[in-house]
Amino acid sequence: MMYQQKEMIFISSYKIVYKGGQGEIEVKKSKFIATIAPVNTEEEAIAFIDDMKKKYYNATHNCSAYIIGENNEITRFSDDGEPSRTAGLPMLDVLLGEKLHNVVAVVTRYFGGTLLGTGGLVRAYSDATKEGLMHSTIIEKHKGNKIHLKMDYTSLGKVQYILAENQIPILDTIYTDSVEITYVSPADTTDKIKKELLEATSASIEITPKSEIYYSTDSGKLLLFDS
Question: What's the whole-model pTM score?
Answer without folding.
Answer: 0.81
